[in-house]
């Protein structure tokens, strides 16, 4: 039996698939039945024609409830009974009916009922009544399958209500939105709670947490969660197709923005096109949370505002439903999928959950936000729905990278320059971990590779480098290997006096005038970097006689017109 909305050519393909599966799985059985989404195939050593059977059976439902579940379920059973009555009145070729009813201005209920055509109207109605009676009194999706009949309801359009149309669907155009695969993270939205104000201790712990998260992003992680002193919990999640450097940049942007915008809030979340970051005073790990939420959808005030609306929403709804199932089964909780929308357009979709969610919770989260899309009022193809635990996006263009498209571009012949020009910094004042309170950070300026080394409170400069001379009130020149191109001058705030024994060999200081300090060419970008103690102001500096890709991040003193270590113009 093919589902009543399925074209004959698709039915033939479905039946072939079903018979192959039965011959493989049930070759020695006397009777069997298989249900596929678009058809049902059954065989037996006894005659079952013109009689209805309710065994074996299959129930499918979710546990995501509507805001007013009691009213919603009354509407479900009322409409299912109307649909069953209509299906039982069908002719001998098709006992199938569907019904769509508005739940609200933006949401609809979809119902379907079907019997095998050999049943009498009386037996069909009895079979459907029994199936409806087995549905649970909860959930936004319900399916009961018998060999002789089936019923289904949901809040997204799972059946075809018209013949597919070749008319192209208009594409959404949102301001400030990425319209193709982009390396630049686009800011989307943030939310700060206003019901509680963070105290100084919480702010200090929050700064530490944000530092931990941004550091974890530099290690190539696309998802990371952490907490500080069990007082503040946080995580970030990058889009699954991103290379590490883009994830790192997005998380860095997110920590800066959320620090600036939500400095006094005990809870906050921020979304970019490439990542999401959130924190809270409550432990939210392993829990589904769907608020606050953010949508970018072209919603109209009228139903079916574009030609081919029903065909478009059917294809989109079923693609997203498949996406939700695949994402929940994925270890990374991330799936992309493309499908043909019509003769001239392709639909590109993405679904993702935070990796701490169990399989069922990920699937339920995505199914729930799919159900909240105002299907009959969508005015164009393109949009996204974001909540703290999961998100999805659909477009008429490929906005994600696949394989080599998602990899970082690599310059040729790196070996002569790698690790010869680096920048260094110290992260101090961190909570003690096995005696370590400081992190020594070294970044290769060409490859952007970052190294982190723990230091204890008693670390001395001898561990890192030896001072050659003082070149100004606030800067010193250090001794580095002759084959290194490390900039030798550091601000005094980065240095500590050596308190150990005198080194056994003396150091001959050469004439500093022989060393040519680099000249500042331009300031490319600036930002505040949160640390456990306070925010530090940094600038991305382009140096004279060097390509822009070798620009470096440098500390900046607002009382000076140049980076701290530079005395030149």
Protein architecture, described:
- With 569 residues, the protein is of the alpha+beta class.
- The protein folds into three domains: 47-154, 2-Layer Sandwich (Killer Toxin P4, Chain A), CATH 3.30.430.20; 162-409, Killer Toxin P4, Chain A; 422-555, no CATH class.
- Helix content is 21%, strand content 29%.
- It is built from seven helices and 26 strands.
- The strands form seven sheets. It has a five-stranded antiparallel sheet, with helices on one face. The protein has a five-stranded antiparallel sheet with strand order 8-11-12-10-9, covered by helices on one side.
- Strand 25 (535-543) and strand 26 (552-555) form a beta hairpin.
- Helix 2 (69-88) packs antiparallel against helix 3 and helix 6 (309-329) packs antiparallel against helix 7.
- The longest helix is centred in the middle third of the chain and has 21 residues, at 309-329.
- It is elongated and about 100 Å long.
- It starts with 7 loop residues before the first helix and ends in a 14-residue tail after the last strand.
- 33% of the residues are buried.
Strand adjacency order, main sheet: 3-6-7-5-4
Average pLDDT figure: 80
Kindly estimate the percentage of residues that lie in beta strands according to DSSP.
25-35%
Percent range for helical residues?
10-25%
Shape: elongated
For the record, the CATH architecture of the largest domain stands as 2-Layer Sandwich
Structural class: alpha+beta
How many DSSP helices? 7
Outline the low-pLDDT stretches.
Answer: 404-420, 502-515, 558-569
> How many β strands by DSSP?
26
Q: Nearest-angstrom radius of gyration?
A: 31 Å
CATH topology of the largest domain: Killer Toxin P4, Chain A
Write the CATH homologous superfamily of the largest domain. Gnk2 domain, C-X8-C-X2-C motif
């Amino acid at each position: 039996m093919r589902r009543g909305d399925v074209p004959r050519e698709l039915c033939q393909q479905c039946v072939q698939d079903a018979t192959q599966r039965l011959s493989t799985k049930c070759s020695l059985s006397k009777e069997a039945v298989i249900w596929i989404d678009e058809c049902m195939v059954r065989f037996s050593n006894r005659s079952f024609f013109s009689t209805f059977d309710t065994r074996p059976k299959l129930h499918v439902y979710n546990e995501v409830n509507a805001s007013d579940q009691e009213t919603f379920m009354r509407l479900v059973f009322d409409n299912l009974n109307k649909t069953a009555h209509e299906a039982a009145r069908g002719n001998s070729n098709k006992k199938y009916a569907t019904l769509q009813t508005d739940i609200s201005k933006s949401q609809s209920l979809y119902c379907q009922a079907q019997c095998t055509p050999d049943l009498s109207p009386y037996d069909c109605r009895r079979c459907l009544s029994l199936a409806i009676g087995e549905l649970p009194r909860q959930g936004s999706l319900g399916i009961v399958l018998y060999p002789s009949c089936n019923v289904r309801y949901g809040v997204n359009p799972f059946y075809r209500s018209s013949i597919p149309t070749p008319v192209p669907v208009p594409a959404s155009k949102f301001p400030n939105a990425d319209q193709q695969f982009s390396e630049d993270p686009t800011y989307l939205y943030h939310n700060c709670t206003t019901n509680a104000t963070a105290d100084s201790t919480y702010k200090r712990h929050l700064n530490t947490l944000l530092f931990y998260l941004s550091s974890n992003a530099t290690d190539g992680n696309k998802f990371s969660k952490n907490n500080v002193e069990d007082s503040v919990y946080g995580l970030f999640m990058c889009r699954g197709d991103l290379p590490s450097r883009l994830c790192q940049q997005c998380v860095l942007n997110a920590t800066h923005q959320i620090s600036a915008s939500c400095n006094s809030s005990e809870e906050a979340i921020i979304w970019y096109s490439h990542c999401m970051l959130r924190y809270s005073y409550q432990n939210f790990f392993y829990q589904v949370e769907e608020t606050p939420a953010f949508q970018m959808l072209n919603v109209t005030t009228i139903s079916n505002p574009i030609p081919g609306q029903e065909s478009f929403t059917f294809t989109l709804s079923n693609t997203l439903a498949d996406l939700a199932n695949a994402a929940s089964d994925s270890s990374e909780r991330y799936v992309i999928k493309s499908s043909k929308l019509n003769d001239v357009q392709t639909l590109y979709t993405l679904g993702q959950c935070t990796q701490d969610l169990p399989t069922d919770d990920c699937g339920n989260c995505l199914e729930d936000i799919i159900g909240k899309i105002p299907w009959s009022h969508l005015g164009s193809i393109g949009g996204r729905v974001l909540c703290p635990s999961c998100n999805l996006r659909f477009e008429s263009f490929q906005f994600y990278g696949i394989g080599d498209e998602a990899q970082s571009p690599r310059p040729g012949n790196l070996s002569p320059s790698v690790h010869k020009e680096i920048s260094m910094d110290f992260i101090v004042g961190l909570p003690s971990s096995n005696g370590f309170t400081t992190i020594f950070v070294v970044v290769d300026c060409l490859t952007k590779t970052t190294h982190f080394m723990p230091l204890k409170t008693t670390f001395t400069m001898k561990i890192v480098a030896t001072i050659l001379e003082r070149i100004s009130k606030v800067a010193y020149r250090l001794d580095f290997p002759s084959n290194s191109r490390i900039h030798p001058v550091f601000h005094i705030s980065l240095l500590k006096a050596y308190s150990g024994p005198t080194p056994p060999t003396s150091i001959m200081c050469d004439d500093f005038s022989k060393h040519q300090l680099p000249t500042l060419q331009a300031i490319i970008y600036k930002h505040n970097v949160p640390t456990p103690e306070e925010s530090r102001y940094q600038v991305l500096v382009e140096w004279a006689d060097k390509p822009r890709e070798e620009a470096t991040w440098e500390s900046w003193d607002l009382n000076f017109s140049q980076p701290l270590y530079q005395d030149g113009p």
